[in-house]
Design goal:
alpha/beta, Rossmann fold, UDP-galactose 4-epimerase, domain 1
């Protein structure tokens, strides 16, 4: 198949690129490298001994993305490109709506022009908002609590309408929980441009000496150790979920939302202890006040992914920490050195 990856040089995009190349698909990566590095693509090419097309372009460039799609004529688009920091979205909401929502409209218009009717969308469990019950299943009400989550929800609505307008269109909405870890080679991994927004890369940077200590936001939640519990999924498992979703999109029509998570949670302190065990390095931390909007626990019901995609997670927390440390140890400054 011919697969067009927007944001294919990013953290999840690069791991998915490696996975789909291993299935002998033809690929075109479309990325503006605003939050990613061309080096990631070079490393994927080296690891797979495969070449692929790369177009440097902005998702907001309607003419540019249309031309790239018309030139490549993909069978399926996998859409990763988008801003993804919750805190930044609250400070810069218009930027998030412009980039994530308007960018998707540009992409869909280009797909229509290129005759491509299948898309796998990188959505998020943030569309659910405060839990009315746990684990979250796909029928849980959607009530995002921040602009980032709202943009994902809005794109889901747009894709549902796009599918309703044409019976031949297909959209698979993959609602991520907390992707972590890295490829076993240690050649590709998560490389935040600034202070990490997520727990695992921050823990990694503390362990490697880039940061002094971790801040734990609250230890008085109603959980086993008082710290927040989240559903972590190995990024390689997530990449495999995208490969499965591509196969599903090839033979199904309509719009389908699917959780991609492990189905169980780990607390902040469990992650810290697991990372210390994997790395042999101490991870100093201090407990500070809770962050506004944080909840005690957050995890998926992944049954639908197993039923529809034949997919489930294969790697546990120890694997996530081991691979994240291997990446960080080999690349203490990320792709920069």
């Amino acid at each position: 198949m011919r697969i067009f990856l927007t944001g294919g040089a990013g953290y999840i995009g690069s791991h998915t690129l490696l996975e789909v190349l291993s299935h002998d698909h033809e690929v075109c990566v479309y990325d503006d490298f605003s939050n990613s590095a061309p080096e990631a693509l070079a490393r994927v090419s080296h690891l797979t001994n495969r070449s692929f097309d790369t177009v440097e372009g902005d998702i907001l460039d309607r003419n540019g993305i249309k031309q790239a799609l018309v030139d490549f004529r993909p069978d399926v688009v996998v859409h990763f490109a988008g801003k993804k920091a919750v805190g930044e979205s609250m400070a810069e909401p218009l930027m998030y709506y412009r980039n994530n929502v308007d960018g998707t409209l540009s992409l869909l218009e280009g797909m229509n022009a290129a005759g491509c009717s299948r898309i796998v969308f990188s959505s998020s469990a943030t569309v659910y908002g405060e839990p009315e019950y746990l684990p979250y299943d796909e029928a849980h009400p959607r009530a995002p609590t921040n602009p980032y989550g709202m943009t994902k929800y809005m794109v889901e609505l747009i894709l549902n309408d796009w599918c309703s307008a044409n019976a031949q269109n297909t959209a698979v909405l993959l609602r991520y929980f907390n992707p972590v870890g890295a490829h076993d080679s240690g050649e590709i991994g998560e490389d935040p441009d600034d202070i990490p927004n997520n727990l695992m890369p921050f823990v990694s940077q503390v362990a490697v000496g880039r940061r002094e200590k971790l801040q734990v936001f609250g230890d008085d939640y109603d959980t086993a150790d008082g710290t927040g519990v989240r559903d972590y999924i190995h990024v390689v498992d997530l990449a495999k979920a995208h490969a499965a979703a591509i196969g599903y999109a090839e033979t199904h029509y309509g719009c389908e939302a699917i959780n991609v998570g492990a189905g169980q949670g780990s607390s902040v302190l469990e992650v810290v202890r697991a990372f210390e065990a994997a790395s042999g390095q101490p991870v100093p931390y201090e407990v500070v006040a809770r962050r506004s909007g944080d909840i005690a626990a957050f995890y998926a019901d992944p049954a639908k992914a197993k039923n529809l995609l034949g997919w489930q997670t294969e790697r546990g927390l120890a694997d996530m920490c081991k691979s994240a440390w291997n990446w960080q140890r080999k690349n203490p400054q990320g792709y920069k050195g």
